[in-house]
Amino acid sequence: MSVELLACESCGGSDRDERGLTRGQRLIEQLRSLGSDVRGTRCLWNCQRSCSVHVRGTGRSGYVIGDLEPSLEMAQALLDWTQLYAASADGAVPFKTWPQLMRGHFVCRIPAPPEEPK
Q1: What does the pLDDT look like over 27-41, one tens digit per residue?
Q2: Strand partners, 64
């Protein structure tokens, strides 16, 4: 099952580091340092809850997750949750299995599209 992780590149655009990177770009950098093939995307329209990502997979619900710090610890928690998501049948990950750092960060669940008739 293919899972896609999209991270907002423009999140926290006014909070740039000494290299000129946004908070979102720094989160992407942390995720990639851990081996993730995260894809950057322009604004996810969740600016009040920067940094934001969208996790989705074919045939399963997707999630928008916000208020993520651009830290290595948060990136690892996100990747740990994403592995649980990938292993699930439909994208539902039991709350009791979530990494502690992921709790309180979910903005919305996007239901999977209906299957195409054969």
Answers
A1: 999 999 999 999 999
A2: 54, 108
Report which of 117, 115, 19 is spatially closest to residue 70, judged by C-alpha positions.
19
> What pTM was computed for the model?
0.92
Per residue, the 3-state secondary structure of the chain, as one string, reads: CCEEEEEECCCCCCCCCCCCCCHHHHHHHHHHHCCCCCEEECCCCCHHHCCCEEEEECCCCEEEECCCCCCHHHHHHHHHHHHHHHHCCCCCCCHHHCCHHHCCCEEEEECCCCCCCC
74, two tokens: 């948060």
pLDDT in tens, 42-65: 999 999 999 999 999 988 999 999
Those residues with Cβ within 8 angstroms of residue 31's Cβ, 6 or more apart along the chain or in another chain: 5, 7, 38, 75, 78, 79
Do 11 and 24 form a contact (C-beta atoms < 8 A)? yes
Q: Whole-angstrom Cα distance, residue 24 to residue 29?
A: 9
CB atoms within 10 A of CB 36: 17
